[in-house]
Amino acid sequence: MFQFIIDQSKKDFQKALDDFKSEMVKLRASNLSPELLEDIKADCFGSEMPIKQLGAVSALSARELMVQLWDKSYVDGVLKAIEREGIILGIRVDGASIYLSAPPLTAESRQDLIKLLNKKKEDAFQELRRLRDKAWKDLQEGFTKSEIREDDKFKGRDKLDEAVRDFREKMEEIADRKEKEILG
Asked: Whose CB among 53, 74, 89, 111 lies 3.0–4.6 Å from 69's, allowing a Cys bridge?
């Protein structure tokens, strides 16, 4: 029982790490990446679909992306989805193609990105703590119901703490790399 709780928690921690990684990809540093847009869900005929299923996203240069949509009717939904995500880029539409360009980063915009990066990092750490607390509560309930022995409860807490440390370190490394990338 206690090992199941630990294993499930590690899966939850991994999902939090994956979510954090995808948030870091969305933070624009010096180069634009197709990953910035690919998974944004756009409304297409009443259903939500990722942009990568509506067309091809490619990098034309370090500061310009192109979305070549399969059909011109997708343009409005994709534009609204990009706007909803809060991605601030210059946009030009040519038929079924959307061109997005980014101005060069200024010192001020770099500092704003660092602040946003730190906020996202802290949010991710809070999510890890929340997941850890939930798992610890589950271990305590298992002990109360006599499903988990007392020594397994504490062994489980130690394993949880170790896993949280590991995932937190991975998040720190990702954030540090992104900060260096932003600062150029």
From this structure: 74
What's 149's DSSP letter? -
pLDDT tens-place string over residues 5-54 = 888 999 999 999 988 888 887 776 667 777 777 778 888 878 888 888 88
The pTM for the full model equals: 0.70
CATH topology for 33-101 is Gyrase A; domain 2 (3.30.1360)
- Is residue 1 within 8 Å of 142, Cβ to Cβ? yes
**Quick check: 160 and 9 in contact, CB under 8 A?**
yes
Distance (Å, whole) CA 78 – CA 32: 18
Identical topology for domains 2-25+106-183 and 33-101: no
